[in-house]
């Protein structure tokens, strides 16, 4: 160690050097402050988003009386962003709801090649809830029955629906919750219109054809882009669907692209379409089973209300109700429209 006998032999520090050592690095401080501000903003954005999704889910549940006291609800978890969000929100609502209801998470493992079988059990195990994995190789059935290049969605859906309906009875669930959202419902309506020639979609609440199960869609009022943002915030272990939803050029994907373009050109159009589905006027359509057109008849027994601005009209023509002779073409004049 170097010893200094007196102060005159010690090295001198310049004032500038001293200030650099004692003052904090402004760049580091600014970066830390910016990071903290960003984290606060992200938290605020997440809270707002969560409140919107909870509110929309709660409103749909209330509007359609989806959940009642004592219900045992089978929540179908596919591994997609929608079903993860649905389970999360339902668990949250369960804690604050004024009624008591049970939630049972169920996944149908359809034995798709490469399907990560451990992800959903590991996720649900951490939640500490009742859950089941149904193992049924519907993938092989679909591949065997559907020709190469054809859409697999129809058969896959039927097999999945039948399996889930039966299992709901086996575990004593009186309702089945699916994760379809507002955009799914609108897309399905156009699919049925364009490719099925019928005006129908996915109802928020459905009684199965055999009347043995009730299906509910708690996310019916929720927007897909908000569910996607919520899913990213929550970092769910989302599993992509390689059997049907990810196939290119499917009819649903075409419809989805069409609606997305409409929304870009006219923001709010998808919501207007969904609102229209809740404001149907059967007499303004053409379904004879829905409205009795055959027996329509007039009733002029009561006094007629005056039409708006009726006193401002002038009736031309030939007949007893004419107020003025019609303006006819002069045979000697040239009709400029026929030039």
What's the overall average pLDDT, rounded?
Answer: 87
Number of helices: 10
List the secondary-structure elements in sequence, H or E.
HHEHEHEHHEHEEHHH
Secondary-structure content class: alpha/beta
Which radius of gyration do the C-alpha atoms yield?
33 Å
Low confidence ranges: 1-16
| CA distance, first residue to last residue | 113 Å
State the major sheet.
6 strands, mixed
Shape: extended
The CATH architecture classification is 3-Layer(aba) Sandwich
Instruction: Give the count of structural domains.
Output: 1
Number of strands: 6
Widest sheet, order of strands: 3-2-1-4-6-5
User: What is the CATH superfamily?
Assistant: HUPs
Indicate the proportion of strand residues.
5-15%
CATH class: Alpha Beta
CATH topology: Rossmann fold
Helix fraction bin: 40-55%
Could you describe the 3D structure shown?
The protein is α/β, with parallel strands linked by helices. It has a single domain (42-279), classed as HUPs (Rossmann fold). Helix content is 43%, strand content 8%. It has helices spanning 15-22, 26-63, 81-96, 119-127, 138-145, 153-170, 182-196, 224-234, 251-265, 269-277, and strands at 72-76, 102-109, 131-135, 175-177, 205-207, 214-216. Helix 2 (26-63) crosses helix 8, helix 3 (81-96) crosses helix 8 (224-234) and helix 7 (182-196) packs across helix 9 (251-265). The longest helix is centred in the first third of the chain and has 38 residues, at 26-63. The termini are far apart. Residues 1-16 have low confidence and may be disordered.
């Amino acid at each position: 160690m170097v010893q200094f006998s007196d102060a005159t032999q010690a090295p001198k520090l310049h004032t500038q050097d001293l200030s650099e050592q004692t003052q904090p690095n402004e760049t580091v401080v600014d970066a830390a402050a910016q990071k903290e501000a960003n984290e606060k903003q992200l938290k605020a954005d997440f809270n707002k988003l969560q409140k919107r999704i909870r509110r929309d889910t709660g409103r749909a549940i209330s509007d359609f009386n989806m959940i009642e006291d004592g219900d045992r609800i089978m929540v179908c978890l596919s591994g997609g962003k929608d079903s993860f969000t649905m389970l999360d929100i339902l668990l949250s609502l369960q804690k604050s709801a004024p009624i008591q209801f049970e939630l049972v998470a169920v996944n149908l493992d359809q034995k798709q090649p490469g399907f990560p079988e451990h992800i959903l059990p590991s996720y649900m195990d951490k939640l500490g809830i009742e859950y089941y994995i149904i193992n049924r190789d519907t993938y092989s059935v679909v591949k065997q029955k559907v020709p190469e290049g054809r859409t697999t969605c129809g058969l896959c859906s039927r097999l999945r629906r039948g399996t889930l309906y039966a299992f709901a009875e086996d575990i004593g669930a009186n309702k089945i919750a699916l994760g379809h959202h507002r955009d799914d419902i609108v897309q399905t309506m156009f699919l049925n219109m364009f490719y099925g020639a019928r005006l129908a979609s996915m109802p928020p609440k459905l009684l199965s054809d055999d009347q043995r199960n009730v299906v509910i869609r708690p996310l019916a009022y929720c927007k897909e882009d908000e569910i996607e943002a919520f899913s990213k915030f929550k970092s769910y272990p989302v599993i992509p669907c390689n059997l049907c939803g990810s196939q290119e050029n499917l009819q649903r994907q075409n419809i989805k692209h069409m609606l997305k373009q409409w929304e870009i050109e006219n923001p709010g159009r998808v919501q207007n379409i969904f609102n229209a589905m809740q404001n149907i006027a059967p007499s303004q359509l053409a379904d004879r089973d829905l409205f009795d057109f055959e027996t329509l008849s007039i009733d002029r027994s009561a006094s007629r209300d005056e039409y708006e601005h009726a006193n401002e009209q002038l009736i031309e023509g030939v007949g007893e109700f004419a107020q003025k002779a019609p303006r006819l073409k002069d045979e000697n004049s040239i009709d400029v429209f026929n030039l």
